[in-house]
Write a structure and sequence with these properties.
The complex is a heterotrimer of chains A (402), B (296) and C (274).
Chain A lengths: L6 H21 L14 E10 L2 E11 L4 E5 L6 H9 L6 E6 L2 E2 L11 E4 L11 H12 L3 H14 L15 H13 L5 E5 L7 H18 L2 E6 L2 H7 L2 E6 L2 E6 L1 H6 L4 H6 L4 E9 L5 E6 L7 E4 L9 E6 L5 E3 L9 E11 L3 E8 L4 E7 L14 E5 L6 E3 L2
Parallel strand pairs in A: 3-8, 3-9, 6-7, 7-8
Antiparallel strand pairs in A: 1-2, 1-4, 4-5, 9-10, 11-12, 11-14, 12-13, 14-20, 15-19, 16-17, 16-19, 17-18
Helix pairs in contact in A: 1-7, 3-4, 3-5, 4-5
Chain B lengths: L1 H28 L2 E2 L6 E2 L8 H10 L3 H8 L1 H34 L5 H13 L2 H12 L4 H9 L12 H26 L2 H9 L4 H12 L1 H16 L3 H6 L7 H10 L4 H33 L1
Antiparallel strand pairs in B: 1-2
Chain C lengths: L5 H25 L16 H8 L1 H34 L6 H13 L2 H14 L6 H25 L4 H8 L4 H30 L2 H6 L7 H9 L5 H43 L1
The chains are: A alpha+beta (402), B mainly alpha (296), C mainly alpha (274).
Chain lengths: 402, 296, 274
């Protein structure tokens, strides 16, 4: 997978990037994972879960902090849902411990974990109860007096903006409304920790985007710690304070959305989040100015410069990854000679706000580049079979060692 | 703790009222007949101590099985049960298939009603439905009266108390068991498949044999098992409609038990009947399992 | 699919249903026959029905049958629901294969074998045979049917609903009674009805397991059937058929109403959402 056709992914990846920058300001101080004095609210300690011979979760150690909106991201079968279900108490770890607020909850049954509530992928609304009874279910289990239940239910319903449906049955609601009921039902218990298993998976795209912002609003208003499981990288980028990218039961990388996108640590992460061009190569030299010189494995002797990461040695096998939007594509040869590739346009995809170009380079690689269509055909547009040059700054290339 | 109790209650119940009774049947089939109450010996007397039990175990033998295999009456009864069950299963299939097919192709809003009318006889008493045929089939019955009046026959047919009457009874009683799985598999067939076949130039009868029929095979298999297995051990139908002429093993077991009061022989007959049925029962369970897995 | 076979379909359905229903219809018609002869129509009369009420033995047998069916069906429904829970919800445990075998086998087991084996059990443990032995025998064989009916419902039931209840603090027992049972209730009712009818119907197992003190209606009918066709049996059969038919019609009408209403509500919501 050198060129992935995830055009949407790339486009929206950048879009959520923008949003992150906009909202980053008020949140900028929020980074408890960097503060060694902070105690995590959740701690996984060497947690492994096996189903027969299949290892669903493999020796995971992970800390999640209070008020975080934490996303577990990965393809289906990567173990993210199993991790969440162990937190809720539906699965017991084969090995390891789970601590919540310093207390070992590994052996507690789901109904004994009163400070943890979950919102289910299928919503799991009780079909025989009205919306009101659904939302009040958890409170009735606690034996709370009826008048207090009424207040708490109304509060939760107001929070999800669903007041007027309280006497309907779930099957009389639309998908979006059902999703709100499911959320209200979990939030009504005022848990310390809210688990969301693909909460928006059943909604269509437009509704989903709206619901994502709503989740963020509710998370902020209630101050609850949210852990969300999703396979949708865009959703994770939008809502999360930190993302854990999972692959085959292990954690590939745990970072903020910006770090995940800009400085992925593995090829898997780079390819899973957005679109990327990856070239195999070898370290030629380390000039010591924070850059690294790489020559392609194809062996044509050219040198590319990229930002160095720690622990590189000369001669090491590495991969150079460049996001498509980092290229500057032009019909004229640029003056610089560093990080310039000449090629021929194979294919052009016009997407309105942006266009993407599949370029066949001289060295025989296929590369994807993106360009925003900011001006209306002032310059001659690039077309099939045009000879073009791709140029990128040294800090746009990320060196991956795995 | 509670989970353990939920398992234990039905488990112990079935062990006590299903499995242990079978072991008792097997044990008694190895005992001697006796004219007493109960009419067999020996019974395990657990209070008598281990030594006595051991001598009692030594008295058990396979003599009753020997007897069954050497007496033509029993072997003939087994064979004729299997034959009657197989033939009537086939006839049931021939009658049920067009009915199920017609139902599956009927307008959608009619289908639940038709289904209900197939199931309705199943809810009414088996005994009564078999009984209803006596008035029709006997020599001075309605069928003969009708045929005589129409001049089709000049003297009454003898159907009652023959194997033919048993066939009719089995086909009639078990028809719903065949129609339901057939209908279920025919109804599932995507109508677009048939349209595709016709679009590709297949005439309707060919479409039926090449598309509809192969897709309905799971229904055929399930229906045949559901008719064949209980038909082999059927008692009421051969007893009421078959008269003394029809040999079926269920009837033999009944009369061995109630008329001859020979419990050990009745038990041995039951054990052998079970052995015969184990093959189709296991095959049926296996087929069900497979179609369930394929459905996923 | 407007099929060009529709004449064929109609014929198949008409013949199929004629075969299923003509014998029953004849039986019903002749229960109103003035004449005692089955083949001769002697005019309309309800005298055989009046005669039934005077037949104390028959009435006794009917009452016994209803009581046996009611008690055994109730036991079978509880046991069958538990068995279904064990099969669907308890996962793997030692002896599960044996258990599912024991639940499945009685469904296809010839009644003569079930009856004989249960009788021999009752004799071996010296249990007085009569009313209660029939109840136990019926509860045993009908619980397997009940288990299958409930199992089917539990299998296509979204298990996350139960998980949600536990997540919200309900213990497993509270979850079962507040969530699972209300949702599977229709299938539990069907299971009870099925067990009840099977018990009403049964001749063979009851004949084996009863003692001198208890006679059920099928046993009574059977002993009279062996003596030949009489309008009196036709009359009692007609009452039983009417009883069941009305029940099934009401049940299917109610489920139909329920599903149409749910469908309407759903459509209204969809229309509102747009």
């Amino acid at each position: 997978m050198t060129i992935s056709p995830a055009i949407n992914g790339t486009a929206s990846g950048t879009a959520s990037q923008d949003r992150r920058l906009r909202t980053a300001a008020p949140q900028s101080g929020f980074a408890p994972w960097k503060d060694p004095a902070k105690k995590p609210i959740i701690r996984f300690e060497g947690v492994t879960k096996r189903f027969g011979d299949f290892v669903a979760v493999n020796n995971i150690t992970l800390d999640i902090y209070e008020r975080e909106f934490f996303a577990l991201l990965g393809p289906s079968g990567c173990g993210k849902t199993t991790l969440l279900r162990m937190l809720a108490g539906f699965e017991r770890p084969s090995e390891g411990r789970i601590l919540v607020e310093g207390k070992d909850i590994t052996d507690l049954a789901p109904y004994e974990r009163s400070n943890i509530n979950m919102m289910f992928q299928s919503y799991a609304l009780f079909p025989h109860m009205t919306v009101e009874r659904n939302v009040g279910f958890g409170l009735r289990q606690e034996g709370m007096p009826n008048d207090q239940i009424k207040l708490r239910v109304d509060e939760a319903m107001a929070l999800v903006e669903l007041g007027k449906f309280s006497h309907r049955k779930p099957h009389q609601l639309s998908g979006g409304q059902q999703q709100r009921v499911a959320l209200a039902r979990a939030i009504a218990k005022k848990p310390r920790l809210m688990l969301l298993d693909e909460p928006l998976g059943a909604l269509d795209k437009k509704l989903r985007n709206q619901a994502q912002f709503e989740l963020m609003r509710i998370q902020e208003q209630t101050g609850t710690t949210f852990v969300i499981v999703t396979h949708d990288q865009e959703e994770a980028m939008t809502v999360a304070s930190r993302i854990a990218v999972m692959n085959q039961g292990t954690l590939e990388q745990v970072s903020t959305p910006g770090e995940i996108y800009e400085t992925p640590q593995t090829r898997y992460v780079a390819q899973f989040i957005g679109d990327v061009n990856i070239m195999e190569g070898k370290v030629v030299s380390l000039p010591g100015d924070g850059t690294v010189d790489i020559t392609p494995a194809s062996g044509d002797g050219r040198i590319f410069k990229a930002g160095a990461c720690q622990g590189l040695v000369v001669g090491q096998q590495v991969w150079l990854s460049v996001r498509p939007e980092k290229f500057r594509i032009s019909l004229e040869q640029p003056q610089s000679t560093i990080n310039v590739v000449k090629g021929r346009v194979d294919d052009v995809g016009y997407l309105g706000s942006i266009s993407h170009y599949h370029v066949h380079t001289e060295a025989g690689n296929r590369v994807t580049a993106l360009r925003a269509n900011s001006s209306q055909s002032v310059e001659r547009s690039i077309s099939w079979d045009d000879t073009v040059w791709l140029e990128w700054p040294a800090d746009a290339g990320v060196v991956l060692t795995a | 703790m509670r989970k353990w109790m939920v398992i234990a209650v039905p488990y112990v119940w079935m062990l006590l009222f299903f499995l242990i009774p079978f072991l008792i049947v097997f044990k008694i089939s190895l005992s001697e007949s006796e004219i007493s109450i109960p009419p067999y010996t020996p019974v395990f007397d657990l209070t008598a101590g281990w030594e006595t039990i051991k001598t009692q175990l030594g008295q058990l033998d396979f003599e009753k099985y020997h007897f069954i295999f050497s007496d033509e009456l029993y072997t003939a009864a087994y064979w004729s049960s299997i034959k009657i069950a197989a033939v009537s299963t086939f006839i049931t299939l021939l009658i049920a298939y067009p009915l199920a097919y017609g139902m599956a192709r009927a307008p959608k809003e009619w289908q639940p009603t038709l289904m209900m009318f197939v199931i309705l006889p199943f809810w009414t008493s088996f005994l009564i439905r078999v009984y209803a045929w006596i008035g029709i089939l006997k020599n001075e019955g309605l069928l003969n009266a009708l045929l005589l009046n129409l001049g089709v026959i000049s003297e009454p047919l003898t159907i009652m108390n023959t194997t033919t009457a048993v066939y009719i009874g089995i086909v009639y009683s078990y028809l719903p068991f065949m129609v339901l799985p057939l209908y279920a598999s025919l109804e599932k067939i995507d109508g677009r498949l048939l349209e595709a076949a016709e679009d590709l130039g297949s005439p309707p009868w060919k479409t039926f044999w090449q598309v509809t029929f192969p897709l309905s095979i799971p229904g055929i298999v399930a229906g045949c098992f559901l008719v064949f297995i209980p038909a082999v051990g059927e008692f009421v139908i051969p007893d009421i409609l078959g008269g003394s002429e029809t040999l079926m093993i269920g009837k033999t077991l009944w009369s061995e038990f109630f008329n001859n009061r020979d419990w050990p022989v009745a038990s041995a007959v039951a054990v052998l009947l079970l052995l015969i049925l184990i093959v189709p029962i296991v095959a049926f369970q296996w087929a069900q399992q497979r179609s369930r897995e394929a459905g996923r | 699919m407007k099929s060009r076979f529709s004449w064929f379909n109609v014929t198949a359905i008409v013949f199929g249903f004629a075969f299923l229903y003509i014998p029953i219809l004849i039986l019903v018609i002749y229960s109103f026959n003035e004449s005692k002869l089955v083949t001769v129509w002697g005019g309309f009369s309800t005298k055989w029905y009046a005669g039934l009420l005077q037949n104390e033995q028959l009435m006794d047998a009917a009452w016994t049958t209803l009581r046996v069916a009611f008690i055994s069906a109730s036991m079978a429904t509880v046991l069958g629901t538990m068995a279904a829970l064990v099969l669907v919800r308890m996962g793997r445990f030692r002896g599960r294969t044996l258990f599912s075998g024991m639940i499945f086998a009685p469904l296809v087991m010839p009644e003569v074998i079930t009856g004989l084996s249960l009788l021999l059990l009752f004799v071996a443990i010296n249990f007085d045979r009569g009313f209660w032995t029939i109840v136990l025998a019926h509860a045993t064989f009908t619980m397997c049917f009940a288990a299958v009916v409930v199992q089917a419902r539990l299998t296509d039931f979204d298990q996350s609903v139960e998980e949600a209840a536990m997540d919200l603090g309900a213990s497993p027992v509270a979850t079962f009674f507040q969530v699972t049972l209300p949702i599977i209730a229709p299938s539990v009712v069907s299971a009870w009805l099925l067990a009840f009818t099977l018990s009403l119907d049964d001749l063979v197992i009851a004949s084996f397991t009863t003692g001198p003190s208890a006679t059920t209606l099928p046993m009574k009918i059977y002993s009279q059937v062996r003596l030949g066709v009489t309008p009196e049996i036709n009359a009692i059969s007609t009452i039983m058929i009417a009883f069941v038919t009305v029940g099934v019609l009401i049940a299917s009408y109610m489920t139909r109403m329920q599903s149409t209403r749910a469908e309407k509500e759903r459509r209204a919501v969809d229309a509102g959402a747009k």
